[in-house]
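From the shared-data thread, chain only:
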Amino acid sequence: MDEQRKHAQELAAAVSAAVAKLNIESLAKELGSLRAESQAADFWQEAAAAQETMKQISRLEARVQPWLELQQSIADCTELLELNDDSVQADITEQLNSASQQFDQLKEALKFNGPYDDHDAIISLHAGAGGTDAQDWAGMLLRMYSRYFEKNGWKTTMIDESAGDEAGIKSVTLEVEGDFAYGKLQGEHGVHRLVRLSPFNADNLRQTSFAKVEVMPKINAPEDLEIDEKDLKIDVYRSGGHGGQSVNTTDSAVRITHLPTNIVVAIQNERSQLQNRETAMTIVRSRLAQLQLEQHAEKVSELKGPNEQAAWGNQIRSYVLHPYKQVKDLRTRYETSDPDSVLNGELDPLIDSYLEFILGK
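Structure, as tokens:
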């Protein structure tokens, strides 16, 4: 019994510390408030807003419920121990072991304590220096991330895509929905370098190509990141494309410029100007949020424009396919001699090593 009591006390203390660090109590209050809001008679009159609220409820339930259930399980064990009944010792031991296992799984969430780690993500890929090889490399990265998203059961939505001249892509922007999507993907933000024998070179020479990956937390709600209207320049123009109804017939495309940082977002893939404007504003907010994290700025008004030129020379990871095989993260020093698996979407070791790296800072 004494050993079980000690186990229960230590487990309860560890779980309480984790619950406090993850702000589970305040998240539970927020969940209760949203649930009450969803019970209002006129809740579904604004369908889009209601759906967003239901998504928030679902996300908060996934974060809060397991911790509350774990605390209750440990509390139940403690009550049984106070009875000093030898006949339930085996049940208590089994329940405590089960609680310990559950805690080990839930502890993964402690890696995600950033302000936007539980948000969905917006990821943009851009071909860099290297011509056709770089565009092909950007296409390879798109395939790599798509495989990773599929393995995690995450939902992806294509926002914008510009195909390469001969192969691959010039750029692509995706919306990624999944548990802690931004928290897990944030370490992919930066320049990725590929070294290989070029399939586009008649002499089959070794070629170095670069692609830039931007990872941003998806900021839907305007109140999550307030932008002064006077800082925005909004242009509308006629969509271009491959034909079809509404293409080149109305000014539905939208380009938004955030003047202080010179961030420009252009969207033309939706049918209506309103939809394109909402999508563009979400990406502007998301880019500013990412910039705010990078520059450790308290206010949007303090932000400076992104230094694109410096970023291109600052690769975070190298993928070498020739003369040897290796993927090496230049920040964490993690490396593997199996680039084929990485390019096939096996990114968890790289992502985990980055999360441990930033926790250790």
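The chain has two domains: 2-111, 119-361.
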